[in-house]
Amino acid sequence: MFWQQLVNGLTLGSTYSLIALGYTLIMGVLNIVNMAHGEIFMFGAFVGLLLVTHLKVNIFVAMLGAALTGAILGIILERVALRPLRRKAVSHLAPLISTIGVSIFLESVALKLFGPQSRDFPSSFTAAFEFGPMRISLVQIFILAVSFSLMLVLRFWLAKTKIGKALRATAENIETANLLGVNTNKIIVLTVSLASALGSVAGVLVGLSFNAVEPTMGITMGLKGLAVLILGGMGNITGAMLGGLILGIAEVFSVAYGNSSYRDAVAFGMIIVILFIRPQGLFGSRDQQGGK
Amino acid sequence: MKLFSEGHFLKGVAVIALSGMLLSVAGCGKTSSPTATAPVANQEAKIGVISFLSGGGAAYGEAIKQGLDMAKEELNAKNKIKINLLYEDSRGEKTDAINAANKLVNKDSVVGIIGPTLSGEMFAVGPIVNGAGVPIMGTSTTAEGITDIGEFVFRNALPESVAIPSAVKKAVDKYKLKTVALMYSNNNDFAVSGYKTFEKAVKDSGLQIVATETFADKDTDFSAQLTKIASLKPDAVMVSSLYQEAALVLKKARELGIKVPFVGGNGFNSPQLMKIAGTAAEGALVASPWFPAKDDANVKKFVEAYKAKYNKVPDQFAAQAYDALYIMSAALDKSGSATDRKKLRDSLAGIKDFQGVTGKFAFDAQRNPVMEATVLLVKDGQFTEFK
Q1: Cα–Cα distance between B292 and B269 in angstroms, integer?
Q2: For residue B370, what is the enclosing H or E element?
Q3: Residue A120 pLDDT
Q4: Residues 105 through 164 of chain A touching chain B, CB cutoff 8 Å
Q5: Chain B residue nearest residue A127, CA to CA
Q6: Among A144, A164, B2, B136, which residue has the fewest nearby CB atoms (within 10 Å)?
Q7: Can you give the pTM of this predicted structure?
Q8: Looking at beta carbons, which residues of chain B come within 8 Å of A255?
Q9: Does the CB of B257 have a partner CB in chain A at under 8 Å?
Q10: Do A123 and B214 touch (CB under 8 A)?
Q11: Using an 8 Å Cβ cutoff, are B365 and B351 in contact?
Q12: In Å, how far is A187's CA from the nearest CA of chain B?
């Protein structure tokens, strides 16, 4: 049972990581918590679902479609809720509230468009493989593979490419980056749309694995993503990856070896303990906040 | 700037306080009026409906609304006292349900209320409505202790304390169960009450409980709980939750290779279970007062009319709502008034030998229904009678 539960924990955790990545990117560059991320995640799940059920496309195309929709939503979000507030000297909390507004709007739109019923992906991925004591379904392998490769690509892209460097420079200091010839407005739009695209892909993956796509699915997942953001260290990508896995495994193991009623208490209690020991999060450092 | 906004704030407070006062005054005026004797012919009875019309359990609310609407049309075509249904959406939330109840009681001055959908909502709303002296009848509130709220609280929903033991007993007899695992949603009053009933029924039958696992409403990942249950190899799993979580539990369980029978509480009583879980729902058991394929003229007529109108077979929630309005209307006729709340309560309490689509019906002294349950088995995507 241990190995099986480990697989369960990793699958759950990697979906948390994927969601947290979106938060982390925006946190790292803009120092803002994007409260609409969970709803963009939900929209991504719906777009993927509709593409698969109505246009009968293959799952990769559906993920691409979801990513594109997410990116477009991200651009709109940046235009509507973030940019107007960045120009003026407004409270630090203003973008938090404006993104909550966007999230409520998106959820209501989804309720109108898709209805309150939960739907699921056609079950073409239910095949499972036995590895000794473990039973891994195709969906689980798929989720693990996609999330880890996305995380690695993102890391590489940030570390090695020119745009990645510009993004990190912007994260370091917007004014300085601007002086050095980085078009920070463009970088910010890029960051928000990239984060939203990641969120949408995460939506499709979560929809695939848990078979329940519905308009309020973004709320709980969004909260878990936020917890991972703090656990991993604000704005740290490695932290988000590992933090998600740790949270997922902690939840699953507190069910497996403890009492399922206390799983959230155990998982969040553990986060509190970690933050006592490392207040800056697992991989955060006190003075540097950046998309690294 | 600052002063300006403070001024606004004060103004806002004043407006709210004033309107609150006005509302309560209006409420007083209206609540006292129904006691005056009303004329007889062609009156309109305003009945409020609080239902789960949007959100995770919207299929319940939709079925209830359809059942009520159908009953209303039929009743208004022949009865003297015309029924006007005022719908309020509770979204499955206690706070929304309370707001809806206050509006119906004080502003719309309804003679009675049907709903709310969930037992948890009834526990929140019941005391308020009961205190206002308005009869309220739950059509789907199955938890223990609903009618203990007060003498104005009724239900025509078969309590789980009757339904669950009969399902458990039949499953034990048929499958020779020895060990079971229990699962329930621990943040839902109805599911927790169902779990306690399950636990008692299981212990009374002398079964051993190998695991008790919980989850929460809206959870989507049950793999940890079910992996644990799979390793303990129980003879059956009993689940108390709403249909959505129940369906996902079934799906995941079958995926993990748990092939034993699943016995469910009232949450299993929805075609949505089969719709979401698909073939994973096969072999699920549930006790229900409603069986659409029953060989009964009343039931056949209702099922056909419902099918013609909504293009689907009515589920338990539609059937119980349909019966509820008929019961309400019978009580209104008997009381002879479309506005007197106290009279309606008294005549409701006296309802007996009522023949509805969910069978022969009467209220007991506790205003709970006296009716029989049929144990149903999901077979080939349909509810069939389990013998």
Answers
A1: 12
A2: strand B369-370
A3: 82
A4: 111, 115-118, 120, 123, 126, 128, 135, 137
A5: B255
A6: B2
A7: 0.76
A8: 213, 224-225, 228
A9: yes
A10: no
A11: no
A12: 35
- What is the dotted CATH code of the domain comprising B161-288? 3.40.50.2300
- As annotated, the residues of chain B forming the CATH 3.40.50.2300 domain(s) are 41-158+296-372, 161-288
The number of beta carbons lying within 10 Å of the beta carbon of residue B378 is 25
Provide the residue range defining the domain that includes A209.
2-219
Give the mean pLDDT of chain A.
Answer: 86
CA B7 to each of CA A53, B14, B19, B297: distance values in angstroms, whole numbers, following the listed order: 55, 11, 18, 68
What is the maximal distance between C-alpha atoms in chain A?
60
Q: B236: left (phi > 0), else alpha (psi -120 to 50), else beta?
A: beta
User: What ipTM describes this predicted complex?
Assistant: 0.77
Structure tokens belonging to residue A208: 């695939």
Q: Is the distance from CB of B207 to CB of B179 less than 8 angstroms?
A: yes
What three-state secondary structure class fits B144? coil
Residue A87 reports pLDDT greater than 80:
no
pLDDT by residue (tens digit) across A2-50?
A: 888 898 898 889 889 889 988 988 888 888 889 999 999 999 999 999 9
Three-state SS at B44: strand
Contacts of residue B14, defined as CB under 8 A and 6 or more positions apart, other chains included, come to: none
Of B56, B223, B225, the CB nearest to A216: B56
pLDDT above 70: percentage of residues in chain B: 89
Structurally, chain A folds into a number of domains equal to 1
Give A116→chain B minimum CA distance, Å: 5
pLDDT digits (tens, 9 = 90+) for B294-352: 888 889 999 999 999 999 889 889 999 999 999 999 999 999 888 999 999 999 999 98
Which of A123, A212, A260 lies nearest to residue B220, judging by beta carbons? A212
| Residue type at B50 in one-letter notation | I
Percent of chain B surpassing pLDDT 90: 58
The verdict on B42 touching A (C-beta cutoff 8 Å) is no
Q: Which CATH number fits domain B41-158+296-372: 3.40.50.300, 3.40.50.2300, 3.30.830.10, 2.60.40.1930?
A: 3.40.50.2300
